[in-house]
Amino acid sequence: MAHYNLGQMLQTSGKVAEAKEHYEQALHLNPDCDEAQNNLAWLLGTLAPAEGGDPVRAVSLAQRACELTGNSDANCLDTLAVAYAANGRFNDAVATTQKAIILARAGGQAELVQKMGARLELYRAGRAFIRSPDKTSPRNP
Fold first, then answer.
1. Cα-Cα-Cα-Cα dihedral sign, residues 85, 132, 27, 98
2. Which residues of 33-59 are buried (b: 16+ CB within 10 A; e: fewer)?
3. Do residues 82 and 126 make contact, with C-beta atoms less than 8 angstroms apart?
4. Which domains does the chain have, with CATH numbers?
5. Which whole number is the average pLDDT over 59-79?
6. Is the per-residue pLDDT at 137 higher than 80?
């Protein structure tokens, strides 16, 4: 958990490369850490490849995070949708976001619902959600 926590702090302060290293270390020590899976997937799926993104790996990590949480965590499903969109799988991104919105509404996560709604419109327009490295915050702060 120390590597995961340090990864979060580094990600929040815009030190993406260092954050990725600590998430990788957290996963090396605990391959079933859904939070590290999810946050690393978010980074890899929301960064352009030139900035260190890896959309293919993002899907794999996000799918594992969803499996580990029983497909019942809106944040993990949102990350999976972001990863799908980064790979051009917009129909999958739309369907996954719709599931995530239902879960977030049921959990009273109004802010997350709003953010996912905006991303949903991007996916419907055939666009991915890409952020600059200095604006890539962790999924589970």
1. negative
2. bbbbbbbbbbbbbbbeeebebbbeebb
3. no
4. 2-135 (1.25.40.10)
5. 98
6. no
